[in-house]
Amino acid sequence: MKIHEYQGKELFAKYGVPVPKGGAAFDVETALRVAESIGSWPVVVKAQIHAGGRGKGGGVKLAKDSLEARSHIQAILGMNLVTKQTGPKGRLVKRLLVEEGCKIAKELYLGILPDRETGMHLIMASAAGGMEIEEVAETSPEKIVKVFVDPLAGILDYQAREVAAGLGIPKAATKQFLAMLKNLFRLYVDYDASMVEINPLVLTADDKVLALDAKVDVDSNALYRHPDILAYRDVEEEDPHEVEAFKYDLSYIKLDGGNVGNMVNGAGLAMATMDAIKAAGAAPANFLDVGGGASAEKIANAFRILLSDPNIKGILINIFGGILRCDTLANGVVTAAKETKLGVPLVVRMEGTNVEEGKRILRESGLPMITADSLTDAAKKIAAAVK
Amino acid sequence: MSIFTKGPIRLIVQGITGKEGNFHATKCAEYGTDVVGGVTPGRGGETVGDWPVYDSVREAKAAVKANATMIFVPPAGAADAIVEAADAGIDLIVCITEGIPIMDMMRAKRYIAGKNVRLIGPNCPGIITPGEYKIGIMPGFIHTPGGPIGVVSRSGTLTYESVFALTNAGFGQTTCVGIGGDPVNGTNFIDCLEAFNANPKTAGIVMIGEIGGNNEEKAAAYIKQNVKKPVIGFIAGITAPPGRRMGHAGAIMSGNSGTGQGKLKAFRENGIVVCENLGDLGAIAKRTFK
């Protein structure tokens, strides 16, 4: 789960990772009060959305006085911010972070994440701060410091020193840097983060270490033990269909530009089904895994979510019944299709446990639907139907 | 003939008192697996069906000589269940549980490293040697005993789809392993490829990967170096957008790493027969495994 920069900085402050003075605001007057309360100029006005590249999109501005602060705040709050991560539609800015500007001597990059290959924690740092780490990795990989941390031991003193040395932290700032790094690591572990990233982490003109940005993503599987992170959730940053799916414990992802809604059991099969739809000449509008043990009610909810997408021209259901029985699926589909007044072609492909019973339920429902014998057959039939 | 087992299986189910645990204990027993009991802390002394329930894996091992376990413990306790089984000296641990926090798995994996234990999963359908035993949630009837194909996959239902295609094309299976969709797991592709390569009953291998990580690329390089048997490879998620997690916690592409195209390229460059559309698997198998 993603949280906002200002929320990440609240966690940083709590854990002793130094951040600039400032605060969040959801309206112009509060934002101005925050700017005035900082007590020095310039201040930085930063759009708070769950996407990177905000500066280049015009969502981060420096104000040298109160007048300029007001104009920036008014311009950014309520703007439709387009960055390379938001896609062309952009994102409406509803929250701001206003904080003190600082004299930057050097910009660094620092990130910690679980490394899936080794099963270790990976600390990545680079003296090329402000740049995307992926870009640095591509153009000058030798500039990235990598330190692997044993999950049973946690970060060791020498490992923290290795990071500091790799970044060329000046002597005057080393003690503070080491403390900051260990605190950040503690936060990362305590909050089950799937990534913490500070880009840029800066050395100020007076040799202080300061996190100018804060990115904290939390492992969604661990949210049950972090109620304070759940409280940070900003549903307005999420796709409304995905929010709805989350309520019913469905794994749903909206895909841009698709015209075929699809419902599948199992994540791998759902991906393969998307691929088959594409190969047949249509475009999948979503990823939807109803899971192994779905009930008829869950299936019905999933079906409703698919149908609520106005871009959908047809629906493909592909189920390989293992734990999820075909008759359960059929009952859910029939219930939902009758309730929602199905107005688009529906192709159903079922295989596995209780398949005969499932097919009988669908047949006797009187619903207009096309049945298919295999995944390829189903994909071809739905592609033909939406043409 | 199975991979990853030494002698007859004596299976316990951790979480046997739960609905799923109980259901699948029964299904595995019906398939022919020797299920000898279960573990649920605090429920020792009870029975589920005909099976005795124990408070700990250590007790179960002592009482019914278990050597394998199937874990259905909910996510919050599942990593602990893995570690408990390893400490009790169980040889084969199959963890079905989906949704274990990654840091719990990192600690558990590190903890059991160096112990003489095989962990399959988590977040996996399990392992089956058709006609002999199944430890997992896969529907048994789609499999065909006797080999000669080994199947290894990161997905559940996608494995069923592939196995069903093989069965329909007239190919039986030696062992099918679902290694699971999580980013940190116990057994990887290479472990399975190595075992299939050494298994005399296995004549060919089907490997089902998906986007995210670089395990498929590493496996492809391993195959070129070491595997003497024909391998068919499939990748799910070619059309998935980058940066989004496709259901499986491990199925996320970032930057240029983990893309489907990159994996297919690695397959082709290392002599793996690529199956682009899963519907063609049967036909490709007939061509490749003649």
Structural write-up:
The complex is a heterodimer of chains A (387) and B (290). Chain A contains 13 helices and 18 strands. With 387 residues, chain A is α+β, with helices and mostly antiparallel strands. Chain A folds into three domains: 1-19 and 103-236, D-amino Acid Aminotransferase, Chain A, domain 1; 21-101, 2-Layer Sandwich (Dna Ligase, domain 1); 239-386, Succinyl-CoA synthetase domains (Rossmann fold), CATH 3.40.50. In chain A, the strands form five sheets. In chain A, strands 7, 8, 9, 10, 11 and 12 form a six-stranded antiparallel β-sheet that branches. In chain A, helix 9 (267-279) crosses helix 13 (375-386). The radius of gyration of chain A is 25 Å and the shape is elongated. The two termini of chain A are 37 Å apart. With 290 residues, chain B is α/β, with parallel strands linked by helices. Chain B folds into two domains: 1-123, NAD(P)-binding Rossmann-like Domain (Rossmann fold, 3-Layer(aba) Sandwich); 138-290, Succinyl-CoA synthetase domains (Rossmann fold). Chain B has nine helices and 14 strands. In chain B, the strands form two sheets. Chain B has a seven-stranded mixed β-sheet, sandwiched between helices. In chain B, strands 9-8-11-10-12-13-14 form a seven-stranded mixed β-sheet, sandwiched between helices. Chain B is globular and about 55 Å long. The model of chain B has no long low-confidence stretch (mean pLDDT 93).
